[in-house]
Design a protein that fits this description.
14% strand, 5 helices, rod-shaped, 348 residues, ten-stranded antiparallel beta sheet
Length: 348
């Protein structure tokens, strides 16, 4: 999927932003007319794009948190090894104390001592050994307490990671489900218009502010290229006359350059379509739409939303069929990819 825009993301605001998106109403009862439905799809389309971007940011943050949890695990393993060494030290000290007589009762040491000096030396050794044992025991206890605290911290990190991943996935799925339902409602209305052979009129969309520094752009912001110009197949009587862009229903379609709306029509193999006339004698066609956002004769600017992609007419799935022609009518198409490339727009 090609993308022309990147947005900075603030990971700490992920769940709050998702909650706002997911809470927006999208029930069929709220979509009274074509304008409301088209606008709802366009808005949900932007919401879904934002949700996907923030889900990706959340996934990257989750990877960071996963790495942090793994570092905890490595730290815990080192602590366990250190405690094992402490336990070995305690055993060694205890064995040494036993061999040196430190384990004898004081009365026995007095009886067996051959002189006061020997008794004092024994008591001194006993005191030092006893202090070493006490210190080793205290150090082991502190290490075990620290280990228990770090184990709980590591477990909490994993729990938070699982909770975040689950919540992000659930909210993203909810938004995408609402969008999918609205998309097919929009497509149903487009199919009805094609069957009647009469368009319902322009649906004005609240397009986000955009500034293009070039005179020409691709007809979609994000897309996957599918059938290309000149390709063959059972779907066409002759060779394919345009470039297809595989996109979901409701994806905003934009004018590749400034011009005038030469035709808006519904019915026939192209379904709902818009044809624009551009300076220099060229025309561009946008076919199989689910809705149109311009009226015939209207002036349009580069990048302006002129409709929403769909699968109306003779279409095997949601996509935009885009043509460049030397007349407004079919049969005069030129290679759209080469035509756009000559205007510094590369589709690949």
């Amino acid at each position: 999927m090609r993308s022309y825009r990147r947005h900075p993301l603030l990971v700490p605001a992920l769940l709050c932003a998702f909650a706002v998106l997911a809470a927006r109403p999208t029930d069929a009862g709220d979509m009274i007319d074509d304008s409301g439905l088209s606008a709802e799809v366009a808005r949900l389309y932007e919401d879904a794009a934002l949700a996907t971007q923030r889900y990706e940011a959340g996934r990257l943050e989750a990877e960071t948190q996963r790495a942090r949890a793994q570092r905890f695990e490595r730290l815990l393993e080192r602590q366990r090894q250190e405690i094992g060494v402490l336990h070995e030290d305690l055993g060694r000290i205890a064995r040494s104390q036993y061999r040196s007589g430190g384990g004898m009762p004081v009365t026995a040491q007095i009886i067996l001592a051959r002189s006061p000096e020997e008794l004092m030396r024994g008591q001194h050794v006993f005191s030092r050994t006893n202090l070493a044992v006490n210190n080793a025991i205290e150090k082991s206890r502190r290490a075990e307490a620290r280990l228990a605290a770090d184990e709980e911290k590591a477990a909490a990190t994993w729990r938070e990671l699982d909770r975040r991943n689950t919540e992000l996935a659930s909210l993203k799925k909810d938004i995408e489900g609402k969008l999918e339902e609205a998309r097919w409602q929009l497509q149903d209305r487009a199919d009805a218009a094609v069957a009647a052979g009469s368009c319902r009129g322009a649906v004005r969309l609240d397009q986000p502010p955009s500034q293009f520094t070039t005179a020409w752009v691709a007809p979609l912001e994000t897309y996957e290229l599918s059938a290309s110009y000149g390709s063959g197949g059972a779907r066409w009587a002759r060779r394919h006359t345009g470039q297809d862009f595989a996109v979901p229903i409701g994806t905003p379609v934009r004018a590749v350059g400034a011009g005038r709306v030469a035709r808006v029509s519904c019915g026939g193999p192209f379904g709902v379509e818009v044809v624009l006339a551009h300076p220099g004698g060229y025309y561009t066609q946008y076919a199989h739409l689910a809705a149109v956002a311009v009226d015939q004769g209207e002036r349009v600017s580069t990048g302006q939303w002129i409709g929403q992609a769909g699968t109306s007419g003779n279409s095997t799935g949601p996509h935009l069929h885009f043509e460049v022609r030397v007349t407004p009518e079919s049969g005069s198409a030129v290679d759209p990819e080469a035509w756009l490339a000559a205007r510094q727009v590369n589709l690949g």
